[in-house]
């Protein structure tokens, strides 16, 4: 029994473990470079040749730009007011005034608060003047389809042909955040988050392979006081309910989530009350579905067991079985029973639990 449950538990736990490994690996790998530069320092953008431009964190002291080609923001649908958050400007790669350095044009996206300063710089650039430099830090990204459309329009309006645009420009921009510190913290946290997911996935695999997810089940059995040999026999002869026998009711235990990651075994002699719970789900007042479960309160457990089932018929079959085999259990719900259970537990237990012998009445069960 335990070896079978260990294998089922391990197999079930692998789904989430693999998701954690893949998701964590992707998150860590995608942010590894940015996290590295955030810790060790940004690359000096002016030292990068055009073929070295890629997704990385850079710092640039900007002396020139060639104007804005796009702005982005949001519109308040109530007031129709448009708020600009960022501006896109044309810049070039390579150090200013370095005739030996090859360069191409690309873009930089800056917060709207820099708009006026960048416009002054652009005017100075077109007039052949040198303006005060602005220092920016950000991540190089590729222009998306919308951004590239405006980028192309800028160059076509400037009179460049498609061939010239292909030769003289790069489809990248430096994405400047509002806060460099905030950006650094974000990339480091994302990388560490990915690493944590990887470690979590590995630990889950180790735990599952060693049967670590059966801890609650073993506690259930220890609480009952039955020897494992009795439990083995009870599990093998228990009646099956739900798909693939996920719920089983024996003479000694009610087992559920049998093929799941963390199976449980409720000692029947500890069960005080069992009833069906029906939940109707609604979205915007429209019924979207109904879920059913069997709620079981057992002595020695602080919270109730909530066993999900597929239908009302499935819930009733389980309750009928408990009612027939465990005469000390109150089966069914009423507001009066609920009030009595929570306000006067002793009186509730005197209805059956304390007055009926805890001996299973199922004639088909194995006689222990």
Name the strands of the widest sheet in spatial order: 1-2-6-7-5-4-3
Number of strands: 15
The outline comes out as elongated
Alpha-carbon distance between the two ends: 18 Å
Which structural class best describes the helix and strand composition?
Answer: alpha+beta
Quaternary assembly: single chain
Largest sheet: 7 strands, mixed
Mean pLDDT: 89
| Helical content (DSSP H or I, runs of 4+) | 40-55%
Strand residues, percent: 25-35%
Secondary structure tally, helices: 10
Low-confidence stretches: 363-368
The string of secondary-structure elements, in order, is HEEEEEHEHHEHHHEEEEEEEHEHH
Radius of gyration: 34 Å
Question: Please, could you describe this protein's structure?
Answer:
The relative contact order is 0.11. The longest helix has 39 residues. The protein is α+β, with helices and mostly antiparallel strands. 41% of the residues lie in helices and 26% in strands. The strands form three sheets. A seven-stranded mixed β-sheet has the order 1-2-6-7-5-4-3, with helices on both faces. Strands 8-9-10-11 form a four-stranded antiparallel β-sheet, sandwiched between helices. Strand 9 and strand 10 form a beta hairpin. It contains ten helices and 15 strands. It is elongated, with a radius of gyration of 34 Å.
What is this structure's SSE topology?
Elements: H1 2-40, E1 43-44, E2 57-62, E3 68-75, E4 82-92, E5 105-111, H2 115-126, E6 134-142, H3 145-157, H4 162-168, E7 169-175, H5 180-209, H6 215-224, H7 228-237, E8 239-241, E9 247-249, E10 253-256, E11 264-267, E12 271-283, E13 286-298, E14 305-309, H8 312-325, E15 330-331, H9 335-343, H10 345-351
Parallel strand pairs: 1-2, 5-7, 12-15
Antiparallel strand pairs: 2-6, 3-4, 4-5, 6-7, 8-9, 9-10, 10-11, 12-13, 13-14
